[in-house]
Recover the amino acids of this structure.
């Protein structure tokens, strides 16, 4: 395998192999491998026993696999089977459970949480899991000199992690933060004796994985497939039900659907099912279910490019989009118009005070009030199929507003490379799904907004006076210990996010998963990319 080529330290593409649900933000990693002779290299056939479960994932497996860095849909799903946190969370309810730790904190509102590691827990190389491994990972995450994606989920509220015994640790919080309990699932514990070696973090990025979870990574072939085998010494709460798994990466929809179609289907489960294929797959006996969550098409404005620095222009362009038409025509009914930054099933949701119902007259008045006469917009977009399907509705509404529109769909990598390189742009349409990290509204909002946030860098908005007040309000909400008051504070600052519309969703849509109910059971469709088979088994 040749050495990967990485972008700069702060580059978003360093962290992501997929952006949210469908915007497959491919990393600039150029991982080289001869690849397998066959993507069914682990064998298969039959059912149960030694049979191999074959899954088809609609996202690339060539993004970063470093659990402290990645937002890759494929890698995050795979890592859930390979690694454990002190705590895990249910893939659907996101309720926390004891994973490497023996129990949840006795008092989530305390500022010290004590954990004892599961007796007999082992790494995949046979060595015991120790407190040193826990401290090693959290020191990396909290290190001010090390830029990781995970830092944004922990550094604001977690002060330090201390070893209190060979297999015990305590977490010292900056202030009471009960939401941090579920976030501990995002800190995958990794073996110090493996990843403290020179170059080991680069190896992790390229796919080296040694965990304590129910599955080991048996082989990894970028752009082809990743295989897993049950770990015989695993003694945790969610044991492997399949002796072997072979996950194929097939980003193109047609061949992905073909793998699970008909009597000669080669796979038992596939995610990212196109809406147009739902009926066909159900007719063939497959179960097809959707997960509705934060998956969304959003618009990102460059506020350094006039007239998009004017909030009225941004609002006008949102009011000119017929979301109901988009949901009918492009999403085949599998979506909802965004009425808040959060989706409607989020526990913190309430409608924002600014809701962008289709209103051309209001949009025209906003442009007039902003003194904008003739406006031409280049809408740069990722070329993900469902996003491209939505673009004509946006174009139609904007042209009815009197705007000249150029649709500019490009490879997702190309779009975000331009953003990383600070190239000029006007408006970007892409997709995101922070539910990969959880349902916590504080986490979701800080993932998208903040003074040093990558998205705010793209929007050139962080120095705006409204933005600075927003960020202060967000930090105050994070520190608020009383749950109902915190919820109200988050809802209030989301009103600001909606009113400003710098980075804001147009629609939230469902993600569809299909599986063969005659072969596997215990599967649940996720409202975020990937699959989780920790509770699945052969029929």
């Amino acid at each position: 395998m040749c050495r990967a080529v990485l972008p700069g330290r702060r580059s978003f593409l360093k962290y992501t192999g997929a952006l949210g649900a469908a915007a497959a933000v491919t990393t600039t990693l150029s991982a080289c491998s001869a690849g397998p002779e066959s993507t069914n290299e682990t064998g298969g056939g039959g059912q149960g026993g030694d049979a191999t479960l074959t899954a088809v994932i609609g996202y690339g497996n060539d993004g970063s696999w470093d659990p402290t860095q990645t937002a890759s849909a494929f890698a995050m799903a795979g890592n859930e089977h390979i690694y454990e946190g002190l705590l895990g969370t249910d893939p659907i309810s996101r309720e926390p459970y004891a994973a490497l730790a023996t129990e949840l904190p006795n008092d989530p509102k305390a500022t010290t949480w004590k954990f004892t590691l599961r007796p007999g827990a082992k790494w995949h190389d046979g060595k015991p899991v120790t407190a040193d491994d826990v401290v090693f990972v959290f020191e990396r995450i909290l290190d001010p000199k090390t830029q990781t994606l995970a830092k944004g989920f922990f550094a604001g509220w977690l002060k330090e992690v201390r070893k209190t015994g060979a297999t015990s640790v305590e977490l010292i919080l900056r202030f009471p933060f009960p939401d941090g309990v579920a976030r501990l699932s995002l800190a995958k514990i990794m073996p110090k004796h493996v990843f403290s070696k020179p170059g080991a973090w680069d190896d992790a990025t390229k796919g080296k994985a040694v965990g304590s979870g129910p599955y080991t990574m048996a082989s990894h072939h970028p752009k082809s497939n990743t295989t897993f085998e049950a770990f015989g010494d695993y003694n945790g709460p969610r044991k492997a039900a399949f002796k072997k798994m072979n996950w194929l990466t097939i980003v193109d929809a047609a061949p992905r659907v073909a793998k699970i179609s008909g009597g000669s289907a080669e796979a038992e489960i596939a995610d990212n099912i196109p809406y147009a294929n739902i009926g066909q797959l159900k007719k063939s006996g497959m179960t097809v279910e959707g997960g509705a969550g934060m998956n969304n098409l959003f618009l990102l404005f460059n506020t350094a490019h006039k007239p998009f620095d004017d909030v009225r222009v941004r609002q006008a362009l949102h009011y000119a989009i017929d979301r109901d038409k988009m949901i009918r025509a492009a999403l085949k009914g599998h979506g909802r118009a965004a009425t808040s930054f959060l989706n409607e099933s989020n526990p913190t949701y309430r409608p924002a005070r600014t809701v962008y119902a289709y209103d051309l007259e209001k949009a025209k008045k906003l442009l007039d009030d902003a003194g904008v006469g003739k406006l031409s917009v280049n809408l740069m977009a990722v070329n993900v199929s469902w996003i491209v399907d939505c673009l004509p509705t946006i174009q139609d509404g904007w042209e009815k507003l009197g705007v000249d529109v150029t649709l500019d769909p490009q490879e997702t990598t190309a779009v975000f490379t331009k953003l990383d390189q600070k190239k000029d742009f006007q408006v970007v349409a892409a997709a995101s799904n922070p539910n990969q990290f959880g349902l916590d509204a504080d986490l979701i909002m800080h993932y998208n907004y903040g003074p040093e946030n990558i998205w705010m860098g793209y929007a050139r908005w962080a120095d705006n006076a409204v933005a600075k007040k927003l960020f202060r309000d967000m930090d105050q909400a994070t520190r608020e210990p009383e749950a109902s008051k915190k919820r109200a504070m988050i809802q209030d600052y989301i009103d600001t996010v909606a009113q400003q519309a710098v980075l804001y969703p147009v629609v939230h849509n469902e993600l569809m998963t299909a599986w063969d109910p005659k072969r596997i059971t215990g599967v649940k469709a996720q409202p975020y990319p990937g699959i989780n088979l920790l509770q699945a088994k052969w029929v």
The first strand starts at residue 52 and ends at 57. Residues 1-46 have pLDDT under 50 and may be disordered.
